[in-house]
């Protein structure tokens, strides 16, 4: 397992815009998608390519193309806010879904939905969620995805804390973690400090 924190100025600027409590849902969603698009550029840096013979307007040549299927797995509902940005760069990616909610008393994840895609065992799988807080939802989602047969799994989030990183690493030491920020700690309610607030509510304008 490796933990990669993206300290790119464009990502940091957009993340700061998202953190502000006065940021509208529209601006929150737009910045979330833009950060996801910027992050996936690096997340997919080592994806294998194969040679392909093509014809340009003036000559034949050998180009490169991605040979491995890519599957996005947003953790519902907040993970949906990252899928459009990633698909802007990987329009051929398929999307599976895992629906989880966190019990407010126990902080444990409860599954309410799961839908896989074909050939997930042969795919590079990006499990996405804006927050890695307690690590429970991320670990549970990856349990589900591994149950589908996935082997090459990467977890992509915006904001993480060390508590969540430790839980996910212990549960799935083979899964690399990518984040835009490693924040300070969790509060007594399991929210990331300073964090973003409730990402799902801020994406969809709900309370």
Describe this structure in words.
The protein has 6 helices and 15 strands. By secondary structure, it is of the alpha/beta class. It has one domain (3-204): 3-Layer(aba) Sandwich (Rossmann fold), CATH 3.40.50.2020. Strands 1, 4, 5, 6, 7, 8, 10 and 12 form an 8-stranded mixed beta sheet that branches.
Summed up:
It contains 6 helices and 15 strands. The chain is an alpha/beta fold and 207 residues long. The protein has one domain: 3-Layer(aba) Sandwich (Rossmann fold).
Q: SSE order in H/E notation? A: EHHEEEHEEEEEHEEHEEEEH
Helix content: 25-40%
The first-level CATH class name = Alpha Beta
Uncertain runs are none
Structural class: alpha/beta
Strand segment tally: 15
Distance between termini?
A: 35 Å
Please give the count of helices.
Answer: 6
The CATH topology label is: Rossmann fold
Question: CATH architecture, please?
Answer: 3-Layer(aba) Sandwich
Radius of gyration (CA) equals: 17 Å
The best one-word shape is globular
β-strand percent reads: 25-35%
Q: Biggest sheet, in brief?
A: 8 strands, mixed
Q: Count structural domains.
A: 1
Note the quaternary state here.
single chain
Average pLDDT across residues?
Answer: 91
Q: Helices and strands in order, then pairings?
A:
Elements: E1 3-5, H1 9-19, H2 25-43, E2 49-55, E3 60-66, E4 70-76, H3 80-89, E5 94-95, E6 97-102, E7 109-115, E8 124-128, E9 131-132, H4 136-147, E10 152-156, E11 159-160, H5 162-171, E12 176-179, E13 181-182, E14 185-186, E15 192-193, H6 199-204
Parallel strand pairs: 1-12, 4-5, 4-6, 4-8, 8-10, 9-11, 10-12, 11-13
Antiparallel strand pairs: 2-3, 6-7, 14-15
Helix pairs in contact: 1-2, 2-3
């Amino acid at each position: 397992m490796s933990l990669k924190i993206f300290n790119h100025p464009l990502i940091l600027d957009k993340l700061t815009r998202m953190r502000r409590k006065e940021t509208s849902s529209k601006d929150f969603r737009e910045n979330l998608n833009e950060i996801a698009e910027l992050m996936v550029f690096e997340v997919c840096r080592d994806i294998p390519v194969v040679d392909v013979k093509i014809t340009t307007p003036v000559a034949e040549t050998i180009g490169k193309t991605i040979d491995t299927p890519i599957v996005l797995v947003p953790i519902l509902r907040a993970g949906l806010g990252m899928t459009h940005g990633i698909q802007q760069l990987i329009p051929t990616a398929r999307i599976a879904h895992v629906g989880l909610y966190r019990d407010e008393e126990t902080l444990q994840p409860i599954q309410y939905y799961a839908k896989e895609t074909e050939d997930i065992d042969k795919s590079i799988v990006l499990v996405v969620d804006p927050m890695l807080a307690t690590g429970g939802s991320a670990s549970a989602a990856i349990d589900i995805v591994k149950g589908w047969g996935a082997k090459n799994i990467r977890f992509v989030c915006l904001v993480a804390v060390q508590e969540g990183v430790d839980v996910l690493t212990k549960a799935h030491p083979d899964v690399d973690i990518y984040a835009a920020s490693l924040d300070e700690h969790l509060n007594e309610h399991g929210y990331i400090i300073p964090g973003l607030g409730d990402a799902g509510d801020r994406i969809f304008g709900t309370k």
